[in-house]
Amino acid sequence: MSSLVFLLTRSAKNSFLEILRKPAKLVLWIFVIAAIGGIFILSLFTRQSVNSFLDLIWLEGVLFLLILIFAIIAIQKGLSNGDAIFDMSDVNLLFVSPVNSRKILMYGIVRMAKMAFLASFFILFQSNTLSTSFGVGIDGVLMVLIGFILAVCLLQIVSLLIYSLTNGKPARKLTVRLVSVAVFLPLITYIGVQLVKNGDPLLALENTLRSPFAAWTPVVGWASHGTVSLISGDMSGGFLFFGLIVLAGALLILYIALSNPDYYEDVLVATETTFEKKRGIAEGQINTEATSTRKVKVSRTGISGFGASAIFHKHLRESFRANRLGLWSLLSILTVLGAVLFSLFLRGEGSGILVLLQVLMWMQIFFIGTGRGLKELYTHYIYLIPESSFRKIVWSNLELMFRIMVESLFIFCIAGLIMGAPFLLSAAAFLAYTLFSFLLLGINYLSLRWTGADISMGLLMFIYTIAVILIMLPGLIAAIFLGSMFGDIGVLIGMGILTLWELIAALGCFALSKGVLHRCDMPVMKPGGR
Amino acid sequence: MIDVHGITKKYGKLVANDNISLSVAGGELAILVGPNGAGKSTLIKSICGLLRFQGSVTIDGHDNHTPEAKRRLGYVPEFPVLYPMLTVAEHLEFIAKAYRLDAWEKNAEELLQRFELDDKKMKLGKELSKGMQQKVSVCCALLPQPKVIIFDEPLVGLDPHGIRELKAVISELRDQGRALLVSTHMIESMEENWDVTYIMVKGRIERVCRRKDLETNQSLEDLYFTITEGRKQEDTK
Which residue from B minimizes the CA distance to A311? Predict the structure, then answer.
C-alpha cells in the first residue's frame, strides 16, 4: 500500500476509534447526526404553501455572499502566508521522505477536500430554513452542500497559487489585488447602473443577481448560479458551472504540479503559521489580536482603575488600540450592517423586528465568547489578582456589556425606523437583546462552574448550548402563553415577561456560579488537528 | 511559607498528583524536578489556585484562594502569555493597579533595566519574541514584591543574559528571605543555589533531598538519575 494512502486511511481509522474510546465525543457525534436527521425529518413536515416561498434568486444571493466572504479570505491568505493544506507532521516527516512531491501535493489536496467537507456541515443544519424559506428539499440542500464544497476547495487552491506566484514579489501582489477587484468590476458597475435606473436597492440587487454578470463571476458566481440552476431543474446550466469549477481546479493543480514541483517552501510558511497559532491557543493565547499582522500605532498609553476595576480599564485600552472605533469591532459593524439589510428585506412585515431579534439572539449565543471577559479565563492573571472573585468577574465583563448596549441601541433604532415598528416594540427588543447577552454571560460562567472546566471544549460548548435552551424555555413559554391572551398589546406584554425572565435567570446564573474563579480549572483550549 | 498537604489531582482516571505534601520556608529555594508527565506543572498550577484539587495549600498561612494569599504570591508560568494589545510598560502598570501597589514605578524601572527591556517599554506584547515575553512575565510576577514566588520552567526560551540575570535574581530573592519553588528540567542550571529538591515520578514525590543529604562528589543530576532511571530498571525487573 502506498505510504500516502496508508496515512489517509490510518488517520481516518484512528479518528474513528478515538470517538469510540471517548464517550463524551461519541455522545456529541450521535447528537450532531441525530440533530441533522431530525432537521431533515422536520423539514419534510413543515412545508408551506408554494406561494409563500421566497424566490430562489435570493438563495443564489445568499450563497453568492457566503462564498464571496470565503473568496476574500482566500485571496488575503494567498497574499500573506498562503493557505495551510499540510500539517507540521507532514512537513517534518513527509517532505523529507523519498515520496514524489507531486503525490504529496495530491495527498494535501485530498485532505483539504476532507476539511472543506467537514467545514460545510453547518449547511445541513440550515436544511429546515432552506425548506421553509425557499421550498428546497433534501436534494436541494445536498446541491448547496456540493456547490459550497467545490467552491471552498477551488478557493484553497487559488490561495496556494497566489502565494506561490506572489511570495516576496510586491509588484505581483499589487497585480493580484488589481485583478481581484477587476473580476468584480463588471458586477459592481452593473449594480450601480441598476440602482441609478430603478432607485430601489432591492430591485437593483435582484436584477443584478438575474444578470449574467453575477453568474459568470469566477468561482463565487459559478458556484452560486450552478447550485441554484441544479435546484431549479436547469441541469445543463448547473453542470456547466460546476464543471467550470472542477476544470479550473484541475488546471490550477496541474499548473502548480508541473511548474513548481519544488513547492515545499511555498507551503511551509502557512503550515508553520497555523502550527504556531494552534500552539499559542493551547498555551493560553486565545486572543486573535496576538497573531494579527496589522500594524498597530501606540499613541495614548496608560491604564486607570484600581484593584479589580483595572481589568475594565485594561479592556478599554486594548479595545481602543485594536479598533479605530474603540468598543466597536469589525463584528459590531458587520452585525449592524447585516441588521440594516435584514430590515430592508422585512420592511412592511408586522413581526419583522421580532424575527430580527430572534436571529440576533441565535447569533449572540456563539458570539458572546468573543468578549474579552470570557477570554480572561484562559490566562492566569485574573485568577491571581488579589480581589474577590465576584468583583473580578463583574469588572471583566463591563466592557462587553457596554459594547452590546451600544450595538443593541443602534441595531433596534435603525431597524425600527426602517421597518416602521412602534417605538415601544423597538425599545422592548433592545432590552430583550441586551439582557439576553447578560444571561448568556451568566450561563457561560455557570457551565464552567458546574463542569469545573475539566472537560473538552466541544462538550463544554454543547452543555452551554443545551443550558441556554433549557433556561430560556420557561421564559419563552410564559411570554408566548401570556402574550397571546392580550390581543394587540400582547406582544409588548410577552416581551416584558421575556425580558424580566432574562434578568431573573441571569442573576440566578451569576449567583449559582459564585466563586467560579477558584472552583474550576483554568480552561485550556485544545485546537483540533486537521 | 508554602505549605502543601495531601494534594491529589485527577483528570478522569489519570492521577496527575497523588497525595503530595511539601513545604518551602522563607529564604529557601526548592527545586521540583522529574521526567515529562511527572505532574510538576499540575502541582504548581494547583498551588497557585489555577486548578481544583483535593488537599490544602497555604501561602504564608493563608488559604491559596484568598486575596491575602494571592497578594503574597508571584507566579511565572511555563508558557508566557501576554496581552497582545498592551505595551510592556502597560503590563507592569496593569499589575501595579490591579494589586493596588504604591510607588511601584522605581521598582518597575529597575526590573525592566535588569532584563534589558527598558528600550522596549513601548513595544506591544504581540511584537515580542518568546524570550522577551518570558522576561516580561518574570517582571510582572516580581513587581508586587511577593513573599512567595513560583517559577514553572523559567529558563526555557531565555537568552544567556536572561538566564544569568534570572539566576542572580533567584539567588537575591532567596537571600531576602522569600520562599521560592522552581520547576525545571535544567538541573545543572540550579545546581549552585538549591536548598531542597523534590524529585517527582508518576505523580508522586519519590524523593526529598536536602543539600546536606548529598554524598561527597555526588551531584543533583546524579541523584536525579539514580531515582528516575534506577526506578525504571527496577520496574523492568
Answer: B98
Residue A513 phi/psi, 5° resolution? -95, 20
Residue range A391-399: mean pLDDT, rounded: 91
Is the confidence at residue B59, as pLDDT, over 80?
yes
- Residue B87 with chain A: CB contacts under 8 Å: 298, 301
So what's the pLDDT on residue A82? 67
Quick check: A242 and A151 in contact, CB under 8 A? no
CB A199 within 8 A of CB A190: no
Look at chain A and count its residues. Answer: 530
Number of domains chain B contains: 1
Q: Where are the domains of chain A?
A: 56-281, 307-519
Q: Kindly identify which residue of chain A lies nearest to residue B50, measuring between CA atoms.
A: A522
Identify the three-state secondary structure at position B10.
strand
In a domain, B135, yes or no: no
pLDDT in tens, B124-148: 998 898 889 999 999 999 999 999 9
Domain that holds residue B194: 2-81+146-236
* Contact pairs from chain A to chain B, CB under 8 Å: 104
Domain CATH number, residue B56: 3.40.50.300
The reported pTM is 0.79
Left (φ > 0), alpha (ψ -120 to 50) or beta: where does B27 sit?
left
**Residue of A381, A382, A395, A514 to mutate, testing the B interface (most B Cβ within 10 Å of its Cβ):** A381
Residue B32 included in any domain: yes
Of A284, A303, A452, the CB nearest to B90: A303
Taking only residues 284 to 313 of chain A, the set having a beta carbon closer than 8 angstroms to any beta carbon of chain B reads 284-285, 287, 289-292, 296, 298, 301-308, 310-311, 313
Q: Do B11 and A305 touch (CB under 8 A)?
A: no
B137, part of any domain: no
CB atoms within 10 A of CB A168: 6
Selecting from B79, B83, B87 the residue whose C-beta is nearest the C-beta of A298 gives B87
User: How far off is chain B from A295, nearest CA to CA, in Å?
Assistant: 10
Q: A522 and B50 in contact by Cβ < 8 A? A: yes
ipTM: 0.92
Mean pLDDT score, A387-410:
91
The predicted-structure confidence for B80-116, as pLDDT tens digits, reads as follows: 889 999 999 999 999 999 999 999 999 999 999 998 8
Contact A307 B124 (CB under 8 A): no
Q: How many angstroms separate the CA of residue B160 from the nearest CA in chain A?
A: 24
Q: Per residue, what are the HEC states of A470-516?
A: HHHHHHHHHHHHHHCCCHHHHHHHHHHHHHHHHHHHHHHHHHHCCCH
Q: What is the pLDDT of residues A113-125, one digit of tens each?
A: 777 777 777 777 7
Q: What is the DSSP letter of B9?
A: E
Q: A225-240, pLDDT tens digit by residue? A: 999 999 888 889 899 9
Read off the pLDDT of residues A35-82 as tens digits, 9 standing for 90 and up.
Answer: 777 766 766 665 554 555 678 888 889 899 989 988 998 888 888 766
